[in-house]
Design a protein that fits this description.
286 residues; three-stranded mixed sheet; two-stranded antiparallel sheet; 7 strands
């Protein structure tokens, strides 16, 4: 049998194994990337203007009856690209190292979310953000490792921003409720931009909303199923599953707290990677 005939089957087998492994492997570890990203100016009173991003979100995020904010990618692709590009360009031109810490945190969250939205719009329609392969590597899944933005002369990927800047500097598990992965199981984007003044409130609101939503925690056939976020980033929520349960109970509403008393650890994890798009009937109604 020739190599040419064997190769497609080998590639398919390797790709299938790779996909299965990705679901079970831990996320990239939190480790500060090289550069000057720890630099900050505590005395700075400079404010980044995130109003364009707030207006963009208010225009294209559609609150669902289930409390989940879905994104109208079709409409944004048709009429919102100029606003989005202008906002991202402004962020890229901002000397983030000269901002104070509170401004920096909001800056990086908004940059991550805006760039993620741009990537999806660039490849829309798509079934899932994981179907958008920007490399590097033949079997790369999703856009997260590609260098997609430039800040202070440094090319950065979404993974650089999340795992190399936000997680290691702020060490806050609530960041996982703020970062947009464009998937159904991802915590909802708020309809306003993060700012130095509102980030703490939005992080708390995001944590409560997600924990009390079936995407975050649900009891199904007598089993406790939680988001895979609590598996992939377990070290951010604490040392073990008991720490994860403490986190869930902290943000759970009273009824859910009572239900969680039966469990010392989740029975399973789940995540829906389908694009969090506005369903066609709702889009046509708008």
């Amino acid at each position: 049998m020739s190599l040419i005939r064997v190769l497609p089957g080998v590639i398919l087998a390797v790709a299938l194994v790779g996909c299965a492994q990705i679901e079970s492997l831990a996320a990239p570890r939190s480790q500060l990337i090289s550069g000057h990203w720890l630099q900050t100016n505590a005395a700075s009173t400079e404010h980044v203007n995130h109003d364009p991003w707030s207006r963009f979100l208010a225009t294209y995020l559609v609150p669902g009856r289930d409390g989940v904010n879905r994104f109208d990618y079709a409409r944004a692709q048709a009429s919102g690209r100029a606003t989005l590009e202008s906002y991202i360009s402004m962020l890229q031109a901002t000397p983030v190292s000269q901002l104070n810490r509170a401004e920096q945190r909001a800056y990086w969250i908004n940059l991550y979310n805006a760039v993620t939205t741009r990537i999806v719009l660039d490849h829309y329609p798509t079934r899932s953000i994981r179907d958008i392969s920007l490399g590097p590597g033949l079997f790369s899944i999703g856009p997260w490792d590609a260098k997609v933005v430039q800040v202070e002369g440094e090319r950065l990927s979404l993974n650089d921003i999340e795992h190399g800047i936000l997680r290691p500097i702020w060490r806050d598990p609530r960041l996982h409720y703020a970062l947009n992965c464009a998937a159904i199981s991802c915590p909802s984007l708020p309809r306003v931009a993060f700012t130095a003044e509102n980030t703490e409130r939005l992080l708390e609101d995001g944590a409560r909303a997600y924990v009390n939503d079936p995407r975050g925690v649900r009891i199904e056939d007598g089993r406790l199923i939680v988001s895979s976020i609590y598996l992939w980033y377990r070290s951010d929520f604490g040392r073990d599953e008991a720490a994860v349960m403490d986190h869930l109970r902290h943000y759970a509403a009273p009824e859910l707290v009572a239900q969680l008393g039966r469990w010392h650890a989740p029975d399973g994890y789940a995540y829906d990677w389908r694009l969090i798009d506005v369903p066609r009937p709702e889009r046509e109604a708008r």
